[in-house]
Structures are given as structure tokens and as C-alpha cells.
Amino acid sequence: MEFRHLGRSGLIVSRIAYGNWLTGSSSRSEETELACVRAALDAGITTFDTADVYADTAAEESLGRALKGERREGLEILTKVFAPTGPGRNDMGLSRKHIRESIEGSLRRLGTDHVDVYQAHRFDLSTPLEETMEAFADVVHSGKAHYIGVSEWTAGQIRRGHALARELKISLVSNQPQYSALWRVPEAEVMPACEELGVGQIVWSPLAQGVLTGKYPPGAGPWPEGSRATDVNDGSPELAAWLNDDVLGRVQRLRPVAADLGLTLAQLSLAWVLRNPGVCAAVLGASRPGHITDNAKAVDVRLDEETVARIDTVLGPVVRRDPAATRESSPPTPDWRLA
């Protein structure tokens, strides 16, 4: 495994992070979760990413059980706050109330007294950013998190949050955007802003919901019940955007590119993501331990410019690049909690 500083902070993370957002899906069980975490540890992965909303809080509990007995100082545990974790109007968002209550719940479920990075899962248009950042500062200054991060914020939102964090003497060190060879939305605005500010990228969905593994051949749908393509807990709404024959056919055309390097399609796709100097870590989920073992090998791959050009030629027409897609991922209006 390779390791890198998270942005310009002193925190070091593994280039592959294990993400357990698949916990609670049709393809996962507690036994599988434990086996996947063990495979991650065996592969040298020390960075583990989760969120309070995953599997209705059960994912944090599962990760806490899986990591029990491991040396806490040797791990980097990241979790997130924003999405609803209860029925009340204050059980969501980035208000002081929700952040203070959520960190306590996350620590209890994870079985630890602190997380290494506490992340805003989305930007909250209904709460003043000053209130949000002051609440995060309280969390850090109380020792319940070492750093803060954000996920799917726009470049402007990250700049404002970073400036407030500095005023409050806390470190906003990471951004977690969707990023893959098919989804290059952060490249235009978000990544340049983060590079300027010293904020590192911990990217999610580097395999485009599994599409870049090649397991969805063109013309093979409809997908069977119980598969990831039909399970909303496995991310099927995001996956559905890629399940068309043009995209799937182009992914299959990458097989010779991978074969020339002795790689699987998944390893090729992960290596493409990790070649970006702003990407500190790629969050990798798995439905089987073997996926972690095989895909973690991508950290040793260095793609030359000719290979990158071949990938761009094949995927170019179906790549998503519009920066507006980052704004679309956040709540559409300030009064979303009252809808």
C-alpha cells in the first residue's frame, strides 16, 4: 500500500480507503463486512470511510465492530453528517444541534472517542455557514475530531468554508467528490480550488458504481432482482445513468488497454483516478473480500501518457464534465427540510 498526506495537512492516509456504504445492501451481510474489512487491513489499508446515514446508521456500527481490537492510532476513521438519521426536522442538515448530536451518535456506534476527519456530507443551504463551521470547531476543539472535510461542495462553498475554518483555528483538509474516468466533473472548478487551498481529494465511486469493472455488458439488461443495478441501497439511481449501451460498449473497448498492461478493468480504472496529483485516496467498496485484495494492487500501477490517451479516446464522448453537476448534488432550495 502507498500513503500520502491529506492535502497540506500532517495527516497521512492510505491511497486506497475502504468505504462501507454498501453495508445493508442485498449483496452484504455482517459476515461479509467483517471479511471485507479484514481484507482491507491485510492489503495495508488504514483509512476507513463511512457515514451516519449509511444503512440507517447500521454501517457505522458494523465498521466499529469490524475494527474492534485494532490499534486505534494506526487507523484513520472518517465519517459524515448531513442526511436524515431520524424522523424529526432537526435530525438532518448542518445545524449546530444536528452536528453536536450526530457526532455523539457516530462515536458511540463506531466505538471510538474520536474520528480523524468529520465531513459535511453535503452543503446545507438552510443553515448559515458560520453556524455550521462554529459547530465543527466545537467538535474539533473538544477532541472528538482531528480535522474536518466536506463532500460534494462547490468550489465557492469550499473557499468560504476554508476561510471560516482558518478563522476558527481548525483544519478543513479534505473534499470527497465523485470522480472516475467517466465522471470528471470536479476537474474544472473544484479540484483547482482545492489545490490552491491545500485541500486533498478523497474520491468516491472511482469505478462508476462498478460500471468500469466491465461487469455490465451492453445489451444484457434488464438486470436481475437483487443485483447492484436494482438495489437502491447499492446506489442504483446513480448507476442507472451509466447503464446504456453506448457507455457499456465503450467500457468493453477498454479491455485491450487493460490487457496490454496485465491489468483488470477495475485496476486500470483505479490507476487512472490515482494518477491525478490532487487525489490523495480513492474510496473503494466491495461485495466480496477478493475485490479489495485485487483492486488494491492498482496503487502500484503507473499509467503512461499513451495509455491515458487511449482511455480518453474510447470514453471521451460519454464522459460527464459539467461543473453544474456538483451543484445538482446538493439540496435544491434553502427550505428543503420543510418540504
TrEMBL record:
Residue segments, region Disordered: 320-339
InterPro entries attached to this UniProt entry: K_chnl_volt-dep_bsu_KCNAB-rel (IPR005399), NAD(P)_OxRdtase_dom_sf (IPR036812), NADP_OxRdtase_dom (IPR023210)
Pfam families: Aldo_ket_red
Residues of the NADP-dependent oxidoreductase domain: 15-314
Keywords from the UniProt entry: NADP, Oxidoreductase
PANTHER family for this protein: HYPERKINETIC, ISOFORM M (PTHR43150), L-GLYCERALDEHYDE 3-PHOSPHATE REDUCTASE (PTHR43150:SF4)
Family classification: Belongs to the shaker potassium channel beta subunit family.
This protein's name: Aldo/keto reductase family protein
